[in-house]
Amino acid sequence: RIGFEMIIETALGMQNVHEIAAASKRNESLHFGVADYAASTRARTTSIGGANADYAVLTEPLADNSRQVHWGDMWHYAIARMVVAARANGLRPVDGPFGNFSDPDAFKAAAARAAVLGCEGKWAIHPSQIALANEVMSPSDAEVTRARRILEAMKEAEAQGKGAVSLDGRLIDYASIRQAQVLVEKALQIAGH
To answer: What angle do CA 132, 134, 1 make, to 5 degrees?
Structure first.
């Protein structure tokens, strides 16, 4: 069986991302092609992924008349939209390239943002990025431990006929179970189980 991995890298592709994701039972994943996408949308950037100093919010003047600048992620919408289309159709969303391979911290930050949105992988265009991508896209031991604690707490709550319970001062419920299961399953998948 041959599977398809599709890259979304144009405005037209993003417009049709849901139809593309549902087009074939052979589809396996969607990838975000940031550089060609930027060119297609005529974004004012020449970087391949990452932050852009011009995509920022200037705060109102503070008490001392100083202002702060808060950078945003100009790729947030595109990645989030691709993730929704991928997940709605049972596909794996993968974030695309990060061109500045001499800045591992910025690569990790971009990968972390994509992971938070639901991507389960990030392209590595340089050998130095492989370990970074694996590190960021893998749940930490602390995250897996917390997820297992959530599953155990909910198992105990269910035995007592409860649909929700408190753990570490936070509400956990059936939605928490699904979130925790995703993390534990991902950790098991990475471990090769």
So the answer is: 135
